[in-house]
Amino acid sequence: MALGDFFPFLAMVAVQLGYAGMNFTSKLAMDSGMKPLVLVVYRQMIASVALIPFTYFFEWKEDKPKITLLILFDILLCSLTGATGNQVLYFVGLANSSPTIGCALTNILPAVTFVLAVIFRQESVGIKKRSEQAKLIGTVVCVGGAMLLSFYNGPTIGIPDSSIHWDYAQKMSKQSAGNNKSNMVFGSIIVIASAVAYSLWVIIQARVNKKFPAPYTSTTLMCFMSTVQCAVIATITDHKKPDWSLSSPIRLISALYTGIVCSALAFLLVAYSIQQKGALYVSVFSPMLLVIVTILSWALFGEKLFVGTAIGSILIVGGLYAVLWGKDKEKKEDNQIQEFVANTTNLSKTTEDLEMQQSKAKA
């Protein structure tokens, strides 16, 4: 593997490991009584502060990007969907389910994004080309896997218990076990809702990137706006001082970890990987998170794996790769068409030049 391929690969593996850690630290923090809204407030506030140096040195030091009211409004929509909506819903869903289910359901993002892109007329639906068939079938398989995972458990898979014992994690998971059993379906539905919010953000963010190509500035503003939004809501709903306390080590660790590692650092690594290898390359690594979290959930939490969870996860990952394959093939087909048009145009110009030269020679 060449160095140009190795560093993006290493960056994306680090991102998936970082997100896996977030699922566990956040789950433990919420099991200790931390409210999801409060966690998002701390996460966005810390992320905003952590991103300021990068924003200054990479975008503001030499040439300040021009910010208009329309751009600010679009960034506000990004904060409502991609930060506040997505993260609050995800943490609420995670608190009422498990890290494995939360990670599995996030893999429906490409399928949900495709459906919303069709609704907003950014994508077209067809069945003539193989790329169109792959996207359509992959979306159906993804949604079917998500429904199966959400509403069907089935028997447990006979995997031996882990020999690793993390007493604190097992104690906290046992305390919330009763609530999780009764709210598992609710938690799954809320995680799916977070995927819809995230997909809406992707569509809006694409518009922002065209109008305002300053990713560090837009992300910093998005995190700051989300901090204000969540702080206002959380102050009303969770106004007691103990709700905001970070005296518990796991709450402090979770707030710092999600803000620095999963927002600021992850954004930089993902942006680097997209720049080097493209957005499709980044998406391919999503199922790795599910594998990591499933193994760690079994090893650290003693989580049981159900047949419904396993089959649903396999369907989601299979549908994910079908959608990604369709998108990749469609992109290659578009490039071939553009190349053909460019070659035809060049050939026509060359022919015209030759005809002009011949006519001049005759004259």
Automatic annotation (TrEMBL):
Keywords: Membrane, Transmembrane, Transmembrane helix. One of its GO terms (molecular function) is transmembrane transporter activity. It comes from the Eukaryota. Its main location: membrane. InterPro entries: EamA_dom, EmrE-like, WAT1-related. The chain crosses the membrane at residues 7-25, 37-58, 70-93, 99-121, 133-152, 184-204, 216-237, 249-272, 279-299, 305-324. It is found in: Membrane. One of its GO terms (cellular component) is membrane. Residues 10-150, 186-324 form the EamA domain. It is a multi-pass membrane protein. It holds the Pfam family EamA. Belongs to the drug/metabolite transporter (DMT) superfamily. Plant drug/metabolite exporter (P-DME) (TC 2.A.7.4) family. This is WAT1-related protein. The lineage of its organism: Eukaryota, Viridiplantae, Streptophyta, Embryophyta, Tracheophyta.
